[in-house]
Specification:
Blueprint: E1 63-64, E2 74-81, E3 84-93, E4 102-107, E5 115-116, E6 130-136, E7 142-149, E8 164-171, E9 182-186, E10 191-197, E11 208-214, E12 220-226, E13 237-240, E14 254-257, E15 263-273, E16 279-288, E17 299-307, E18 321-324, E19 331-337, E20 346-352, E21 363-364, E22 372-380, E23 386-394, E24 397-404, E25 416-417, E26 446-450, E27 453-460, E28 467-473
Antiparallel strand pairs: 1-28, 2-3, 3-4, 4-5, 6-7, 7-8, 8-9, 10-11, 11-12, 12-13, 14-15, 15-16, 16-17, 18-19, 19-20, 20-21, 22-23, 23-24, 24-25, 26-27, 27-28
Length: 475
């Protein structure tokens, strides 16, 4: 997190990327979506669900992941172990304000059941648990990355970034235990870090990559790499220079890594507010073909609607998402777009088949159905399919949906409703007291491919608090 100031008032102060939903009633219309089987999820007092999909169903039941005393589970990230595809690791921020811990959850049966994972030990210099992401390398090691947000710095305005830092933890047992944290950067502005791991065999499977928003104007990207399985990291270096224009949102990135040294970092380089109240970001990709030794020139991929100003004051936020095919022959980037003032938004996808040097024109993945689609998350599988999970708004209710392309094509089937019941994103039972007066969903939700399926994890309010749920789709 970067600031608690209102981004629609303070133009020169960058904000952390937060999927903030603010007050009021959503005035969007969502056409009927194909639904998964309406298999019931267990109640808060029940035991872990073991439900699986029936043979006729493409989606398993919604399985509750988080069964603990915490009322807020924000920004879940998901990774599948390539050596044991049924082994899944989820990590999230355990509180929406002044985050002080990371929560993890593990599954050994492909998401049919979940247990509370280990708690990554806190750094001695102060608590950390902001902007949590996970990755699993080709060597089977799991990685958790999180930031210390900078809130609570005793130095205050004299040095508001003195308390910031980025850390990485390792796990060799699927998330039951974690190493001590490795410090990547501290004492300077660092926001929205993202971790990815090499997917090839041999030494490339031990590579770990992390990038974050940086710089005095908060529009630069810094990057570091480990070549020893996350035990040590190189000195961070800048791979994207600061923009000359001011930005409302920090350049918080996503990172993807494939085999043979392909690495891609995407972000909103600059974000401005238009007359309708929407914030439009310039989606930029910076790619490496040699495992992060060098990066090519940044490529502008298009303009995304980073924040949508909907009637009633609802402002869903998004950022660009990136995925690399398991063969490393394609890099995909997805982001939302909306015409100013429209009651519909789309998710578009672009692809590079030359390791990030050139990209296709964005292709629309969502139907023109009047829905508000936002917060896309990407995964690609060995069959050449691309999966996009996203939230969709309908009359003040929200669903998690999934779009899947045909193998080898950017042609998508109609969105499939994943949630067994829509939920209220403005449920007052989950209201917080610090983040603009209302809780928020986080910056992202989790998606991963593995063993011929797509796994999804998201947060919703059906339990009366912000809990995590999971489902598995069989294409």
């Amino acid at each position: 997190m970067t600031s608690n100031h209102n981004p629609f008032i303070r133009i020169n102060e960058s904000l952390s990327r937060r999927a903030l939903l603010r007050g009021g009633v959503v005035a969007a219309a969502l056409a009927a979506l194909p639904s998964c089987d309406a298999t019931a999820w267990t109640t808060p007092s029940g035991t872990a669900s073991t439900a699986t999909a029936s043979p006729a169903s493409r989606v398993t039941a919604n399985v509750r992941v988080s069964r603990d005393q915490f009322s807020q589970h924000v920004g879940p990230s998901l990774a599948a172990n390539p050596r044991q595809p049924g082994q899944l690791l989820v990590a999230c921020q355990g509180s929406p304000f002044t985050p002080e811990f990371v929560l993890t959850y593990v599954s050994a049966d492909g998401g049919a059941t979940w247990q509370l994972g280990g708690r990554p030990p806190q750094p001695g210099s102060g608590p950390a648990g902001d902007d949590v992401t996970v990755a699993s390398g080709g060597n089977g090691t799991g990685y958790v990355c999180a930031a210390r947000s900078g809130h609570g710095s005793r130095l205050g305005p004299a040095n508001p970034d003195a308390n910031r830092a980025v850390y990485v933890w390792r796990t060799g047992d699927g998330g039951r235990t974690f190493s001590a944290p490795v410090t990547l950067v501290e004492g300077v502005y660092s926001d929205h870090p993202w971790v990815a791991a090499g997917q090839g065999g041999g030494s490339s499977g031990r590579h770990v990559y992390v990038a974050w928003g940086a710089g005095a104007a908060h529009t630069a990207l810094e990057f570091t790499r480990s070549t020893d399985g996350g035990q040590t990291f190189a000195t961070p270096r800048r791979i994207l220079a600061e923009a000359s224009a001011p930005s409302l949102v920090s350049a918080g990135p996503q990172v993807a890594a494939g085999p043979d040294g392909v690495v891609c970092v995407v972000c909103d380089w600059t974000t401005k507010q238009d007359a309708s109240g929407d914030m439009t970001g310039q989606v930029t990709a910076v790619c490496s073909a040699d495992g992060g030794d060098t990066f090519g020139a940044p490529v502008h991929l298009g303009a995304e609607t980073a924040t949508m100003a909907l009637p009633g004051g609802v402002r869903p936020n998004s950022g660009p998402a990136v995925a690399i095919s398991p063969r490393g022959d394609a890099i995909f980037v997805a982001f939302p777009v909306r015409k100013p003032g429209a009651t519909h938004s789309d998710i578009v996808v672009t692809v590079s088949r030359d390791r990030g040097r050139s990209w296709t024109a964005p292709v629309t993945a969502t139907p023109a159905d009047g829905a508000i689609y936002f917060q896309p998350n990407l995964a690609a599988d060995a069959a050449g399919r691309v999966a996009i999970s996203a939230f969709a708004l309908k009359d003040g209710r929200m669903d998690e949906v999934l779009l899947i392309s045909r193998p080898g094509q950017l042609s998508f089937d109609p969105p499939l409703r994943v949630t067994t019941a829509p939920f209220d994103p403005l449920d007052r039972a989950t209201a917080t007291r610090g983040k603009y007066g209302i809780w928020w969903l986080g910056d992202w939700q989790g998606i991963a491919s593995g063993d011929g399926v797509f796994h999804l994890v998201w947060n919703d309010t059906r339990t009366g608090k912000l809990d995590l749920f999971a489902a598995t789709l069989h294409p």
